[in-house]
Specification:
By secondary structure, the protein is α/β, with parallel strands linked by helices.
Length: about 280
């Protein structure tokens, strides 16, 4: 599998018209079709429905593949940039971490903090894997956000943020029997409702009506769906809570998770790293 194949699928998901996409990619329509068929054979699954004169229709796996391809492409381009700059170059900083945390916490923080670093470009990356590993940071970034503390020679791993989890309810839903709520959650594998309510507070496992990988999308669903609820970190729903569109009920000190900042001991970005480790206080 090559990067050019990834870009082909991205282009066809954005515009399933073979003729237009082939022209934009400077390929013949026949060559474009052959690349798609070759990739589908390599994957062992179809990515598009062939509809004759009406062209292609992306299947759900095509959208997932396109999202993965975008992340791989971004990581590749960032890695090339890192190779092309000197190790002590201080004007570009790559930070990798969980998507929601980067979007809802880091970027708002950077909006306020960037005036202190007028010559620095912050590049934020979200890895294609569910969790950020120290190996990801070593290969792609100057620093990264870990969901558990790791120890490794030549690296520092410091607490950066504490996520407070709570029950998020539609504003019209009064506190009562939790089993009657229309529960939505992150996924079957990583399920905050099960983690904080079922496992730790011994609540009977509820019936789930909704799964979505994007926690912000779950929060919006709760705000728009009477009778619905989920368990989410506070920073994911703060904006909806301020607008009165959801109710957030903290689950208590045991329902908190710590995030850590990992970076090389010899990093030239000492001032920025110090500011990042103070971010939890600044966001309160």
């Amino acid at each position: 599998m090559e990067l050019s194949q990834l870009r082909v699928i991205q282009a066809l998901v954005a515009d399933p018209n073979l003729t237009r996409t082939a022209e934009r990619l400077h390929l013949t329509q026949s060559a474009l079709s052959k690349r798609v068929h070759a990739l589908e054979e390599e994957l062992g699954l179809p990515l598009f429905e062939r509809r004759g004169p009406r062209g292609l229709r992306p299947l759900p796996q095509a959208y997932e593949f396109a999202r993965l391809a975008e992340r791989i492409g971004n990581a590749w381009e960032s890695g090339i940039k890192r190779l092309q700059r000197t190790p002590t170059e201080p004007d570009h900083f790559v930070l990798v971490g969980p998507e929601l945390f980067m979007r809802e916490v880091v970027l708002p923080w950077w909006t306020k903090a960037q005036t202190q670093f007028p010559l620095l470009d912050l590049e934020v990356q979200v890895p294609p894997l569910e969790r950020v590993s120290l190996e990801t940071i070593q290969s792609d970034a100057d620093a990264g956000i870990l969901e558990q503390k790791e120890e490794l020679a030549d690296y520092v791993c410091k607490h950066i943020y504490t996520e407070q989890w709570g029950i998020v309810r539609h504003p019209g839903l009064k506190h009562g029997n939790l089993s009657r709520y229309l529960w939505g959650t992150h996924s079957t594998q990583q399920n905050p409702v099960d983690t904080w309510l079922v496992q730790r507070q011994k609540m009977a496992a509820p019936s789930y009506r909704f799964y979505w990988q994007d926690l912000t999308a779950i929060a919006v669903w709760v705000s728009q769906t009477p009778g619905s609820a989920s368990v989410l970190p506070h920073h994911a729903v703060r904006w909806l809570e301020k607008a009165g569109k959801i109710t957030f009920e903290p689950l208590g000190p045991d329902a908190a998770s710590r995030l850590y900042l990992a970076y090389p001991k010899n990093s030239p970005h000492t001032v920025l790293l110090k500011k990042l480790t103070q971010m939890n206080l600044e966001n309160r």
